[in-house]
Amino acid sequence: MTILIPSYEPDQRLLALIRNLKEVSDASILVVDDGSGENYRDIFESARQEGCTVLSHRVNQGKGSALKTGFDYVRRKGEKDGVVCADSDGQHLPGDILRIAEAVREHRSHIVLGSRQFTGKVPLRSRFGNSVTRMVYATATGRPIQDTQTGLRGYSSDMLEWLCEVPGERFEYEMNMLLEAPEAGYELVEVPIETVYLEENKSSHFRPLADSARIYFPFLKFCTSSGFAALLDFSLLIALQWLTSNLLVSVIAARLFSSVFNFTVNRRFVFSAGEGSAIRKSLPRYFSLVVVILLLNYAILHVLYESIGIPLVPAKLATEAFLFLFSYGMQRKFVY
């Protein structure tokens, strides 16, 4: 088993973690210096003296890039037992790291997540950030998990090539990995670990605005695409209902035009489905989903607008809010 520690501008807690791991395990320890610079050379040299392999980036490239460097090294080395990734700031306990390693051996072809329970005193930004990403992940995949932002994760050796191909170079990489795992055939298993925050997590290099934007970018693109499609659908519905006074015809025509727009944008910019055979594969799936959503759209609108008597505008808004979440999950999982 290899313990992989990506590290950027570490302090003595990195060395303390290495020494504590050496006391309880004979696992290989691989440290990736993500362009920390000359001021941190002594710490990484001390890590080498402790028996660690240290790889270095000349400039800072991001946590995702550091993890990929480590995965590629382990893959080329021919590791058969697996890899456990831990952060360098002392917030992962050696006992928990070893529990993840054992879970990797027990759950082959599973991504093992060290799942914090967020009990006790937890910094607000950490609690809020995990709550939001947990909601986004559950919406995107239909599979809720407790801790989407944990840095303590374990992988079997047959995942290494795939791990090097997952998009993302910074903090978004770990979220992208979770989003793409089901399609790649990898299940998730969570192992409870201690929740440890030192000095209100001040050592974290996570940038709340910039890195959050990277994490949520796929979902934000979908929101933008769906927003324009919904605006087109909404405008056409109101206009057609005024012209024809026929709700069914208005719903079908508005949904048809907005669906063509939405498919084109999502294929090219949101889910990057590509050309050729990818279009032939995704097109029938997408419009099958359109039919399902169309039926749901009409059924819900009929109940809210014609049966209950809610005005058309608020009835339409309520319907679209529900169908938005349903559509994202289905497109992510089945269409593209």
From TrEMBL:
Compartments it resides in: Membrane
GO CC term (a single one): membrane
CDD domains, per database record: DPM_DPG-synthase_like
Domain GtrA/DPMS transmembrane: start-end pairs: 221-335
Record membrane topology: Multi-pass membrane protein
Pfam families for this protein: Glycos_transf_2, GtrA_DPMS_TM
InterPro entries listed in its UniProt record: Glyco_trans_2-like (IPR001173), Glycosyltransferase_2 (IPR050256), GtrA_DPMS_TM (IPR007267), Nucleotide-diphossugar_trans (IPR029044)
Keywords of this entry: Membrane, Transferase, Transmembrane, Transmembrane helix
Membrane-spanning ranges: 246-265, 286-305, 311-330
GO aspect biological process, one term: polysaccharide biosynthetic process
GO MF term list: transferase activity
The keyword Transferase is annotated on this UniProt entry: yes
Glycosyltransferase 2-like domain sequence ranges: 2-129
SUPFAM superfamilies: Nucleotide-diphospho-sugar transferases
Record's protein name: Bifunctional glycosyltransferase family 2/GtrA family protein
Source organism: Cohnella zeiphila
